[in-house]
Write a structure and sequence with these properties.
By secondary structure, this protein is α/β, with parallel strands linked by helices. Strands 8-7-6-11-14-16 form a six-stranded mixed β-sheet.
Length: 367
């Protein structure tokens, strides 16, 4: 019979090779997912679901700890400005591994370890320090049979790092782009490429149900319609949303009901042209499966709008926008003088985005 070990898991890729090694060496891992550091919650859900999927595939027990990012923020208070591998990381490890130690004792498992020690971005010394401290905290005053010990081995050695990468590809795991918390994210963002961010945003969107995206869309549209820019605009440039974009139907309906003139973009070769929108009956499926208005493109004074509401894959707090990579909106917006309002789901608004000289900045972003 295999000896049970509680394995604190940070993600499926980092867990995979360790689980495989344990299974081949007389160990039965019980997976414990305790990661209140992960931000935003969409990212937490993606990583958790990948662990659940892998545990189910292997027939392993999976236990999820409570997710309370606010509690984690309180635990690391005063260490927010520390760099990676600094005191903030040590406190983060202490909190999560203490929870792991407590769960191991609760389950009557005498040994626990963590996949954190498989990452080359982490300090093995800090992980060992945090794990041994957690074991001591939980075991203090306990009988010999209730003691827990931390296995502080280096899970990068013995070919496990290479095997991790092989299992990542074989299982199609989501491979995260940063450690987990908002501080590591903000440190990593300047090093990400545009395609990295696009891939990440697609994963975050998939972490939501259609109902959740619909509710967020309605809230965003209501706030736009209460804003000064919308109320003062006699004509607006809007868009028909793709399934993964903020749904603008409320804005389209509201604009027509209040007498605003509405223009929609239409793909014409490598450019976007503007066509007036008069209601759903004027639409037909155009490029990329987007509903586009029938009719001829408008030019000159006929194409003037007071407010342009623009979708994107992501925006940052400085107004930079990341599109889908075709450059349609950048070419269009470079030709017009109008208030440019980016629109996105809350998780699409970042602290920083990679940008280039030709990228047109927004005057404001609503999320």
């Amino acid at each position: 019979m295999k000896d049970k070990v509680l394995l604190h898991c940070c993600c499926a890729p980092c867990s995979s090779a360790i689980i495989e090694w344990m299974s081949a060496n007389g160990k039965q891992p019980v997976l414990f997912y305790s990661n209140p550091n992960i931000y935003p919650e969409e990212e937490y859900r993606i990583r958790r679901d990948e662990c659940v999927r892998y545990a189910e595939k292997l027939g392993l027990q999976f236990i999820e700890d409570r997710y309370d990012h606010g509690e984690w923020r309180e635990w690391i208070r005063g260490h927010e400005g520390q760099p990676e591998r600094g005191s903030r990381c040590l406190e983060c490890f202490r909190m999560r591994l203490r929870r792991a130690a407590a769960k191991a004792r609760e389950l009557g498992i005498g040994e626990f370890t963590s996949t954190l020690a498989s990452s080359r971005w982490k300090s093995l010394e800090q992980i060992a320090q945090a794990g041994n401290w957690a074991a001591g905290e939980v075991s203090a005053g306990a009988s010999d049979t209730a003691q827990v010990q931390f296995d502080s081995r280096n899970w990068r050695k013995g070919g496990l790092q290479q095997r991790r990468n092989e299992l990542l590809k074989a299982n199609g795991f989501y491979n995260q782009l940063y450690c987990g918390c908002e501080f590591s994210l903000n440190a990593r963002l300047p090093m990400m490429g545009k395609d990295d961010v696009r891939r990440w945003m697609r994963e975050l969107k998939r972490a939501h149900t259609r109902q959740e995206l619909s509710e967020m869309s309605a809230d965003i549209c209501r706030r736009i319609m209460l804003g000064e820019e919308w109320c003062n605009a006699g004509s607006v440039l809007l868009y028909n949303a793709l399934p993964d974009e903020v749904d603008t139907q409320m804005l389209l309906d509201g604009a027509l009901l209040t007498g605003k003139r509405v223009l929609l973009p239409k793909v014409c070769g490598d450019e976007l042209v503007l066509v007036e929108y008069t209601g759903p009956d004027c639409l037909s499926v155009g490029a990329y499966g987007i509903l586009e208005p029938d009719g001829t493109s408008l030019e000159g004074d006929d194409a003037v709008v007071n407010l342009a509401i623009i979708p994107g894959m992501a925006f940052d707090v400085h107004g930079h926008r990341l599109g889908r990579g075709k450059g349609y909106y950048d070419r269009l917006l470079s030709r017009v003088n109008v208030y440019k309002m980016g629109i996105c789901f809350p998780f699409q608004l970042l602290e920083y985005l990679p940008c280039e000289e030709h990228d047109v900045r927004m005057d404001g972003v609503v999320s």
